[in-house]
Amino acid sequence: MALIETLYTGFGAWNPIIWLVSLVVALVIAWLIRSRGESARPTGAEAGKPYLSGNDAPSPEETHVGASNLYWGFTDALKGYYGRVVPLHTGILTDYVLWFIGVLALVIVMAGVL
Known about the structure:
Elements: E1 7-8, E2 13-14, H1 16-35, H2 60-63, H3 67-70, H4 72-77, H5 79-85, H6 93-113
Antiparallel strand pairs: 1-2
């Protein structure tokens, strides 16, 4: 039967029966190791706390990382670009539409010239 025959390739051999036996042996070893572990779980106030090597968990305010800290390398590397572009952002929609129409007109003119 072709399903249980050994497949020989240029890199080695593969047999599904040997693979299944190996899987069962590995699962039995994993089950034996797991069964020797401690089954008792902490209860009460300590049950939901993360393990921090015996230290108290810091407050969320102390562990908060601001977005400016996350992207400082990126913004610092592009400081010259941001220095020129950020003042152009007014937050007014009509300004953005004007920029869009201006760039679109420039592209159309350049496409007509080229």
